[in-house]
Amino acid sequence: MRALRILASASVLAGLVAGIPGRATAQDLQIGVLPNVTARVILTNYRPMREYLAAELGRAVEITTAPDFREFHARTMAGAYDIVVTAANLARVAQLDAQLELIAGYDPPIPALLVMRKDARVGALDALRGRSLAVANPQSLVVLRGREWLAENGLVAERDYRLSWTRTEDSLAQLLVSGDAPLAMMSMGEFRTIREDIRQALEPYREFARVPNFFVLAGRRAPDAQAQALRAAILKFPSTARGREFMALTGVQGIRPVPEADLADLDAISAATRALLR
Fold first, then answer.
1. What is the mean pLDDT of residues 4-17?
2. Phi and psi (nearest 5°) for 102?
């Protein structure tokens, strides 16, 4: 078996941040992970999956990402990755529009949060009126559902409040700390990866929804035997030692086939997802 690459070097990490796969060859299995958190966090969290799949499939494995959701989705649609780990709404669009094969979904659902400063607590949603809502990823399922939820509560984006977009969870938190935004919208996973000294100044204002967790897709067509081996390996992963390490790092509690009924709910927001990706 080929020796596994150690991807923690500064040059590879720089490539991940820029969205460039780190020194990959045509034979490497490429796992593309949506950049909902920093490249450094992705690299740390997905190391157990990389090591497991390399041993299970007998191939070198690379973890890669992209600068933002839009670019990551474009690369997904272009077949840049062998395995795609992405938000459920983006996965459904890729499944419908590029005929990518859905392998599995993560459990449990993701808590969707509004977050505020501890020393500037928000008493009511009207505090957002005429001000900015900080978001890291406008195309995320959390933000799409959050905008719907705010509209149901009488606050419409670009009419009653502005969206203030930033690339990383730490920068998102800084918009709260600086007072530029009274509230930020993020997943629980994003909240947990905010740098500890910054996160200490923040707290959830409200959990407004639970949205489907990430989906896993086959990003490229492969011979049936290879595709079946990949599917089996992904579904077996949680029961292995490295799978348990991955779950401890990420908060994922299971990986399972996605029922058709779950996909129907995502179809209702597919058009909005496509519009935000353009």
1. 38
2. -80, 125
Residue type, 245: E
Express each pLDDT in 204-263 by its tens digit.
999 999 999 999 999 988 788 888 999 999 999 999 999 999 999 999 999 999 988 889
* Kind plus residue range of the DSSP H or E element containing 265: helix 260-267
CB-based contacts of 277, cutoff 8 Å, min separation 6 = 69, 70, 73, 74, 90, 93, 139
* Dihedral sign for Cα atoms in the order 157, 109, 168, 104: negative
Number of other residues whose CB lies within 10 A of the CB of residue 27: 8
pTM, whole model, 2 decimals? 0.84
234-243 residue pLDDT tens: 999 999 999 9
273 closest CA partner among 129, 105, 138, 72? 138
What average pLDDT does the structure give for the chain?
88
pLDDT at 26: 53
**What are the CB-based long-range contacts (under 8 Å, 24+) for 98-103?**
100/76, 100/217, 100/218, 100/219, 101/217, 101/218, 101/227, 102/215, 102/216, 102/217, 102/258, 102/263, 103/215, 103/216, 103/217, 103/218, 103/230, 103/231, 103/234, 103/235
Mapping DSSP to helix (H, G, I), strand (E, B) and coil, where does residue 45 land? helix
Q: Rounded distance, CA 156 to CA 271, Å?
A: 18
